[in-house]
Design a protein that fits this description.
Structural class of chain B: mainly beta
Structural class of chain A: mainly beta
Order of helices and strands of chain B: EEEEEEEEEEEE
Oligomer: heterodimer
Helix content of chain B: under 10%
Largest sheet of chain A: 7 strands, mixed
Helix content of chain A: under 10%
Strand content of chain A: over 45%
Strand content of chain B: over 45%
Largest sheet of chain B: 6 strands, mixed
Distance between the termini of chain B: 41 Å
Number of helices of chain B: 0
Shape of chain A: globular
Radius of gyration of chain A: 13 Å
Distance between the termini of chain A: 37 Å
Number of strands of chain A: 11
Radius of gyration of chain B: 13 Å
């Protein structure tokens, strides 16, 4: 149980284009999803917290208009990197939690998406 | 505010040797603590968690960690390392109680050599 998937696993795009990454909870309803960014050999940096049916809460320093997050259903959240540039190249990881895990803050992580912007 | 310090960005052990990965936390309120493992190009997998019950927590793959409030530590140990344990390990902290964010440490890369 508690499986989270991400799609695509890898994406290469040209500078200036937009890229959408999907995060799905496969066997549970995720009331909250999180989006992280991880640079090579570094830790995870929380970008935003997404609650189903409401606007995402972004961490300080994260551009809302650059990283659009939509959590339209209890099993799907999307991250769209708009007008991507090479500095947006990174490993993006989503996580999710359901009501039981929320009580002790456990998160279930997806496998990540490697974004390369040329 | 919460923070996590993982001492040692790289740890190398021989197969069969004790694994000790260090984690110290700072929290203004009682914390919940987690250890996650990440294999290359993958997401994170939970090894174990402390949520104010038993201070010695046993996790998957033979790992365990002990919550020591007096030392503000939550070190991860395994009696005998396997080659398959080679990975990146992250310690994370949150406030106790639900619906709180995780704050991650910088990570420790564990290498296991024959």
């Amino acid at each position: 149980g508690a499986v989270v998937s991400q799609h695509p696993s890898r994406v290469i795009c040209k500078s200036g284009t937009s890229v959408k990454i999907e995060c799905r909870s496969l066997d549970f309803q995720a009331t909250t999803m999180f989006w992280y960014r991880q640079f090579p050999k570094q830790s995870l940096m929380l970008m935003a917290t997404s609650n189903e049916g409401s606007k995402a809460t972004y961490e300080q320093g994260v551009e809302k208009d650059k990283f659009l997050i939509n959590h339209a259903s209890l099993t799907l959240s999307t991250l769209t990197v708009t007008s991507a540039h090479p500095e947006d190249s990174s490993f993006y990881i989503c996580s999710a939690r359901d009501p039981p895990s929320a009580s002790y803050n456990e998160q279930f992580f997806g496998p990540g998406t490697r974004l390369t912007v040329l | 505010a919460q923070s996590v310090t993982q001492l040692g960005s790289h740890v190398s052990v021989s197969e069969g040797a004790l694994v000790l990965l260090r984690c110290n936390y700072s929290s203004s309120v009682p914390p919940y603590l987690f250890w996650y493992v990440q294999y290359p190009n993958q997401g994170l997998q939970l090894l174990l968690k402390y949520t104010s019950a038993a201070t010695l927590v046993k996790g998957i793959n033979g790992f365990e960690a002990e919550f020591k409030k007096s030392e503000t530590s939550f070190h991860l140990t395994k009696p005998s390392a396997h080659m398959s344990d080679a990975a990146e390990y992250f310690c994370a902290v949150s406030k106790s109680g639900g619906y709180n964010k995780l704050i991650f440490g910088a990570g420790t890369r564990l290498a296991v050599h024959p």
